[in-house]
Amino acid sequence: RMRRPPHPADVYNAGNLAIFAGWFPSEWMREPEALDKWLKSEFGEIVEGEYSTLDELEVIMERAFVDAKRLYDAEEGPPTDDVDKTAGKFGNLNIRGS
User: So which domain of life are we looking at (predicted)?
Assistant: First the structure.
């Protein structure tokens, strides 16, 4: 979990705002740097401490992946003989309806 929200300029760009075309200046589609300039004028510069950075998000995601893999690896699947019985139940299905 991020300690602070990411800066909007790290999250939004003209491409992912395209579905809102008409709700913002069309110049942002032609000149994406104009959107970036506006975001920074409204939310300030991207300063670590005020906003979570993309580097921080990458570290958080790496930790989450390691934790998820550890939990997944710790889970026990069904016993092998149960899997074999289930496979046999479905082996003779007639899916053509004849």
Answer: Eukaryota
